[in-house]
Amino acid sequence: MECARLPAEETNKDLLRFLTCGSVDDGKSTLIGRLLHDSKLIFEDQLSTLAKDSIRYGTTGDDIDFALLVDGLEAEREQGITIDVAYRFFTTPRRSFIVTDTPGHEQYTRNMATAASKADLAIILIDARKGVLLQTRRHSLICSLLGLRHVVVAVNKIDLVAYQADIFDRIVTDYCAFASQFGFSSIVSFPISARNGDNVVKLSDKTPWYSGPALLDYLETINVENETAEASFRFPVQWVNRPNADFRGYAGTVVSGTVNSGDPIFVAGSSRTSSVKELITSAGPQQFAQAGDAITITLADELDIARGDLLASPMSRPEVSDQFAAHIIWMSDQALMPGRSYLARIGTRVTPITVTGIRHKVDVNTSAHLAAQTLDLNDIAFCNFATDTPVAFDPYVHNHKTGAFIVIDRFTNHTLGAGMIAFGLRRGTTIHRQTTLLGKSERAAQKRQRPAIVWLTGLSGAGKSTIANIVERQLHAAGHHTMLLDGDTMRHGLNRDLGFTEADRVENIRRASEVAKLLLDAGLIVLCSFISPYRAEREMARRLFSDEEFIEVFVDTPIDECVRRDPKGLYAKAKAGTIKNFTGIDAPYEAPHNPEIHLHTIGQQPEQLSEKIIRKLAELGRIG
Amino acid sequence: MREVVAEFKKPVMLYSIGKDSSVMLHLAIKAFHPAELPFPLLHVDTTWKFREMIAFRDETARRLGIEMLVHVNHDGLSRGIGPIASGSSVHTQIMKTEALKQALDLHGFDAALGGARRDEEKSRAKERIFSFRSQGHVWDPRNQRPELWNLFNGRIRPGETVRVFPLSNWTELDIWHYVMLENIAVVPLYFAKHRPVVRRDGTWIMVDDNRLPFRPNEEPEVRLVRFRTLGCYPLTGAIESHAVSLEDIVSEMQSTRVSERQGRLIDSDESASMEKKKREGYF
Predict the structure, then answer these.
(1) Is the ipTM of this complex over 0.85?
(2) Which of A16, A56, A335, B273 has minimal Cβ neighbours within 10 Å of its Cβ?
(3) Does A316 qualify as catalytic in the annotation?
(4) Is there a single domain that holds both residue A20 and residue A156?
(5) Cβ of B153 and A415 within 8 Å?
């Protein structure tokens, strides 16, 4: 069980999940408060707290401020805006509802996407006095990207435009004109006043020109049957249940489709097939399971299946690829860098992932395609992705459960973005590495050594290249075969198209580590001298090699000392502002947490420091 | 819950003995069948719980053969902290919040499953299902991870912990429907019975033992009462009710005009008090 299923679902009582979106002060919270109040779903003690709070924080004079029912956190009350996603529950005789209230404030797009990922329907509020705004377009775009199919347009504050029919009609026409591109399957509009209750729960006598149902009536009856039950069978393995040696079951939730005891099963990724032996629940084996059921599956054959694998119907297989194109919504202050290594969670699988290219950024207000090097908080873009291992997926439009992923920071573990896969990239499935007859161990054996990467990182002027040169000379003198890669040298050739922005630094290190890998495959001991200021990129480099092959050396010289030495006169220029993005001055340096070798250079001679590296290479058996 | 077992090194289930805990435990047993529960249960005992709760806890552990850890803040106890001597907010802070942190640190648990629901209280309405706590168990509402689809991010660094609320989207009524549907055992205090009570602060407080001092004009009397929520007995108000069966409770629920936590004296100090407690590490 991921999130325990509600009994309402178990008993097939109908549940509608919807979100409200609109600009600040369009009245989202007020509308929810009004729905709860007029359906008599607010308890007496909550009402008395509300009356108290309305006087203290309210913005409606002496009237009760319904928004205060929904705005929960102290900070929000002070600012008068909702800052996060709040969940409300109410039940009418006809239906149960889960409402997510989402902020309309510019910088909180990520919360809206969060709410939209779990909703069947969106209520888009438009202030009758203001009409369709840029934010209305943005909210509609996000709803559409996240695959919402049903939209309610609530033209609120109709009382403040004297209940005029032509104003309502004009807003609806405006909205439908631009929303046609989003492919919603239904758009229904209501003229309402959340504050006075017009057409929310009861039809208003002030809008005789409006002939439709009241909003709640519509919410209670709209059919949002989704197709998950008809979609192909998909079952991400959540946990392997092995209470003893005789039992091996795969526990998880059927995310789409149905499965019967005896059905053939395809294990995506390993491309093996088997069949369902039993569908197990605590009430005993059952014949059948469908989307939403939490079950444990046993298979007829013993296959090596682990958490993260996807069981599917062999008749309708998911795509398997290590490259795909997807939309992404970026949710972090820390910008997305193409080439940087992140983690992705797809279904129950977690795998390293990088953006190999930003195809275009989407202007959320106009839906226009823009060029971009990096993505900032609340940016939406269409990108190419590459994963370290092939993953199984379906396009998001076909299956939300197997086509969605989140992006996680490798160090802070924060959730950084949300992705929706559009399609697999053919090159992912067709390019295979050419196998060579000789390997690095044969090549290295001929040189009587074992290959290694010595990665020196540190500030400009810390002494990296000086130390690397001494180490190389000593190794050479001892008869070893080496190569030295240096940041400045690389930038004169292979990397001369790159500058010093964060994105270019990421690419600089990616290319450098790939070159280092080729040299290692040639059997060499490779000395790499790069500032390499970001942990993520050093980690990316490290992952190209095995543990004993990669030696990270932190050349630790305090910034003041580097500035004092300033061998190339660069710090002076950076301080004068003639060089931008200079590490240590106006660009960050992230020191390693656990380098294999930590060299404090103050008071030490470069020869002493080099000796430590040579000793480490001998210790690890890289040199004789 | 399986997600928690798959993602964390040392999870625990917080067991408060209430109806939500009963449902959560029942679901866990179902989720891991046929294996045994892969984590222990932890009860933070303030020493002021109803006697029937403690009896039910011990009975449940025995009946299901579950490892039940019980933690008491002995330091607080020796300082004489209690709901009557120290007042509700100090008592809750020391004997529940601090005690919980002590217990989690003592055993090194990195994930704690809890039965809290979003419909209970306003600041709970914004709680994540995976609620992230930094070192020292601090909850920062501005630094919670977005939760999209059912893709939970349970990755943490050493010292950080996560509280997980699998019943987030259940309502009080859902709980009772499910208890009825699956015939789950709950503490008898939820059913109406003649019990000795006193009228205090607009609610009925049960005289569960002789530690409850009476205020002037308070006279214990016997009333037909039941509890909608359970906690420390001097802080938990009963309601007058005739509901003696699960069916009665459900029908009473459907006609009630008062919310569940109204019986909790700890929430009514200030309307933002729950958020304050949570920032300090309360569940």
Answers:
(1) no
(2) A56
(3) no
(4) yes
(5) yes
